[in-house]
Design brief:
Elements: H1 11-17, H2 20-32, E1 39-43, H3 49-56, E2 60-65, H4 68-77, E3 83-85, E4 97-103, H5 112-122, E5 123-134, H6 140-152, H7 168-177, E6 180-189, E7 192-193, H8 200-208, H9 218-236, E8 237-238, E9 241-244, E10 247-255
Parallel strand pairs: 1-2, 1-4, 2-3, 4-5
Antiparallel strand pairs: 5-10, 6-10, 7-9, 8-9
Helix pairs in contact: 2-3, 6-9
Length: about 260
C-alpha cells in the first residue's frame, strides 16, 4: 500500500486471505509490458509478489510501500530484491525509471495530485505508467452498508473513510494536468469472490476496513458486523460465498516532458 492513513496492515493475513490482489495485478503487468533490463518502480508493492514477477520477466524492479509490515514481509519473501518503506505522496529518487507500476494501491493515496507528481518525477521522459485501482462505484454496496450501520450508532462513516475512487474523467484529467499523455483508460466492474466462506466479508473488513470500527468494544463491533452481513447477504452472498462489488480503473499513460 502507499500513502499514510489510519489502516493498520496485517501483512500475513493480506498475503493468504487476500491473495487475489496480486493475482489480478498480473494482467496490469501485461499492460505495462516490461522489457528485460528496464528499471521499474512498483508503487504500493505490498508483500512483493508483483515486483518478483517483474524480476522474473527480466526487469529491474524497486518496490515501495508505506506499510513497514508489508515491506518486512516482502524482504523475507524476496531477499534479493530492493524494497523500501516510502510514502507515495512524497517519494523521490535520484534515479529515473522506465516504468512505474501500481496495483490496488492508489485508492489509498490522498491527495491524488501528490501521487501523480511522484509518478511523474520518478519517470524518465517518455516513460510509462500502468496502474489499476478502485474506481468510481467501487464497493458501493459494502461501503453503503457500513455507513448505514455506523449512522445508527451516531458515527459519520465518511469522516473515517480514507479511500479515493475517481471516475475516468477525473483521473485522466489529473494525469494530463501533470504532463502525461493518456494512451488508454478503462472503468469496469469486477465482482471479486472472497476467501473465508461464511466469514469472508468480515475477513475482508478486518483486512481493508478495520478503521471504521476504531474505538468499538468487542460486543458493539460484533453486533455491527452481524448487521452489515445481514444488510448485504441478499446482494453479495450466494452458495456459501461472499463476493465484493469491486469496480476498477485501469490506465496507461506516458510522461511527455
Amino acid at each position: 500500500m502507499t500513502a499514510s492513513n489510519s489502516q493498520e496492515w496485517k501483512a500475513q493475513q493480506y498475503d493468504t486471505a487476500m491473495s487475489f490482489v496480486s493475482k489480478y495485478g498480473e494482467s496490469v503487468l501485461e499492460l505495462l509490458a516490461p522489457q528485460p533490463g528496464e528499471r521499474i518502480l512498483d508503487l504500493g508493492c505490498g508483500t512483493g509478489d508483483l515486483a518478483a514477477e517483474l524480476a522474473r520477466r527480466g526487469a529491474v524492479p524497486e518496490g515501495i510501500d508505506v506499510s513497514a509490515s508489508m515491506i518486512e514481509e516482502a524482504r523475507v519473501k524476496y531477499p534479493g530484491l530492493p524494497f523500501a518503506v516510502a510514502d507515495a505522496t512524497a517519494y523521490r529518487s535520484e534515479r529515473r525509471f522506465d516504468g512505474v507500476f501500481s496495483n490496488a494501491a492508489l485508492h489509498w493515496v490522498k491527495p491524488p495530485e501528490a501521487a501523480v507528481e511522484t509518478v511523474r518525477q520518478a519517470l524518465r521522459t517518455g516513460g510509462r505508467f500502468a496502474a489499476e485501482f478502485g474506481g468510481k462505484g467501487n464497493i458501493a454496496a459494502i461501503a453503503g452498508a457500513v455507513a448505514a450501520e455506523l449512522a445508527g450508532l451516531g458515527i459519520d462513516a465518511q469522516a473515517r473513510n480514507p479511500w479515493y475512487y475517481p471516475s475516468i474523467g477525473e483521473y485522466t484529467t489529473l494525469l494530463e494536468a501533470h504532463g502525461f499523455r493518456v494512451a488508454g483508460a478503462w472503468h469496469f466492474d469486477r465482482p471479486t469472490p472472497l476467501a473465508g466462506g461464511e466469514n469472508g466479508l468480515r475477513l475482508w473488513i478486518d483486512t481493508f476496513a478495520a478503521f471504521f470500527f476504531a474505538g468499538f468494544d468487542a460486543g458493539v463491533k460484533e453486533r455491527a458486523l452481524q448487521a452489515i452481513e445481514e444488510r448485504l447477504r441478499p446482494q453479495l452472498y450466494k452458495d456459501g460465498q461472499w463476493t465484493a462489488d469491486y469496480v476498477r480503473i485501469r490506465v496507461l499513460a506516458y510522461r511527455e516532458e
